Amino acid sequence: MQFGFKSSNSSGKVARTVSTGSSHKQSRAIAADHLIGPFNQSRDTVNEIIEMTGAIPLFDKIDSVQVGVIAAHMQVKHLDENQRLFAEGEESNFICFVVSGTLEVFKQSQSGNKVSVSTLSRGRCIGEMALIDSYARSATVIARTPCKLLKLSRESFDHILDERPRAGVAFLKNLSKSLSLHLRKTSGQFADAHDADAVVPVLNDKATKQPKLIDHIINRKESKLPPLIRQFI
User: 189: exposed, middle or buried (C-beta count within 10 Å: 0-12, 13-18, 19+)?
Assistant: First the structure.
């Protein structure tokens, strides 16, 4: 597999291709002076990371050179089946992107049980808020199958913002869009839960000990973390 260059298009961006036999597909590559990065990774390794970002929608609208800058600050992480990525309450200091495999997300219920709330597969990201704030993890994430992930730490992202702000801002804008969609989806789920609660019949006039459904979702357990609207993983 070899990386090559195409001529610049009308927008001034340089397209790249990856050759595999007679087949050709679009990929991303970057200038030679960006290939090593802070982890002193080989050019082949960084090129592999660049190619992996092709599976992540968040990178679709980021310029290829900027993708290369970000890729040079990322590392490949492998998880075995049932291996934990992080646990609820742990320090939050990195984001991961799923290249292959499936992750399962768990929240601790009021009774202390772990409840599965989501599964994440190829193209999804987890731990977004770790790049923005320093709150503890709000969920536990476990690999349900062997997984390959791309990891970007808060320290590395801060370095990108300091040294290559255009790449950092481009990444942050796309991350913000992803978080916005996540919030809109969550708001819709709250609204649906509220509607479901509104039609529950009252069985007697005595005060019930069970909280309303929407209150139960929002106030699932006591926590020192901020309100749920801020509790992204």
Answer: exposed
CA–CA gap between residue 69 and residue 135 (Å, rounded): 27
Question: In whole angstroms, what is the distance from residue 104 CA to residue 233 CA?
Answer: 12
State CA 35 to chain mean position distance.
23
pLDDT of 178: 81
Residue 165 is encoded by which pair of tokens? 């702000």
Give residue 132's pLDDT: 87
The pTM of this model reads 0.67
The residue count of the chain comes to 233
Q: Give the strand order in the sheet containing 147-153.
A: 75-79, 147-153, 94-100, 125-126
CA pair distance 191, 106, nearest whole angstrom: 22
Alpha-carbon distance of 153 to 73, in angstroms, equals: 8
- Please give the structure tokens belonging to residue 28: 């991303």
* Strand, helix or coil for residue 195: helix
Residue 200 DSSP code: P
What is the end-to-end Cα distance of the chain in Å, rounded? 37
Q: Which pLDDT tens digit goes with each residue over 123-139?
A: 999 999 899 888 999 99
Ranges of beta strands (E only) in the chain are 2-8, 14-20, 23-27, 75-79, 84-86, 94-100, 103-108, 114-120, 125-126, 140-143, 147-153
Between CA 183 and CA 230 the distance in angstroms is 9
